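REQUEST ID: PR-0412
SUBMITTED BY: lab tech R.K.
PRIORITY: routine
TASK: structure prediction, single protein chain
INPUT:
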Amino acid sequence: MKYFLFNHVGSFNHGCEAIVRGTVNIISNSDNNAEFVLSSFAPDTDAAISDVEKKLFVTRGLTSFEKLVSAVNVKLLHSEEYALKKMYSEVVLQAQDCDICLSIGGDTYCYGDNHGIQVLTKELKKSGKKVVLWGASLGEEDLTEQKLQSLADFDAIFTRESLTYELLKSKSANKNIFINPDPAFCMERDEVTPISGFTKENTLGLNISPLVESYNPQITQITRDFIKYILDNTTLNILLVPHVIEPGNNDYEYMLEFYNEHKNSGRIQLLAPDLNAKQYKGYIAHTRFFIGARTHATIGAYSSGVPTAVLGYSVKSRGIAKDIFGEELCVVNSRTLENSEPVIEAFNTLVEKEQEIKEILMRKIPVYLRDAMQMGEKLIKL
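STATUS: complete
OUTPUT:
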């Protein structure tokens, strides 16, 4: 079968790249003849992904007549749906020879009303395609009646953690709701050579993003205080790991300030911004502990058996930790942080329970990978 992967922002967001790579691995494991079309907002950033056909996610302009009809619809019906249908017609054409369309932006329904994606889902359905929401997370606070109606349009919803699964089940959001791990767990990692002096025995991996800073402006000072604590109270070196390098949302640029403040110590390094998701995961695997704000950086750590704390900002980080450990272990709400103490406490928990956490990950991750691989079989049965 042929699979149309859409709602992909581009691989400057390496979490999105990891979802694509994991998805290809999962489906190819169940469908030996699988072909993939990746509709991307930035296909020039996806060069490292070699096993998909890449197409630019493009909207077309409206004709004069369509603009007139659209204006009437907005004025009389307060609806932009007519205009959006016409604008997305090119994307629907991209999917015309595909069998199943996967909306792989798992966070889509967490941010705003995303009316455009809701309309596109309807249009793909009308064209005769099976349409699936893939690797979804959303919380009670994200749900509206309009979103619930849109969720019902999908042929199936694959949630990536139990909190979302239980919520959507309780709302009867769709007749086919499944729970499986985030597809990114199934992305393989590249074997990389650790930076000299930054080995698995003595390295704390750290990912901080401007996204969490936008939710909580105190994060910059909290990070500064936490780094000072590590350098003053432990012998660990710190490896700063960027995971999103989009313009205006660039982990590398944001963490460069922390690197410059301590680079003369010889105990801090910042990974280059031009690596791909598999390479970043390779470096994460060489850390002893990991603390991350980007969900897919922490997935790279969990799936590599690294004791991990999460600076969470949504239901996905809480749900993933709960499903792995049976509790929201070492998940810190980054939105409400006022100082570095909760982060230090989470780090100390990693140290105190290091062996216990490793043993849990050693048992759980193979089961997680098996469960994720089963998504391909469930998808084919549609």
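NOTES: The CA atoms of residues 242 and 251 lie 5 Å apart.
REVIEWED BY: pending
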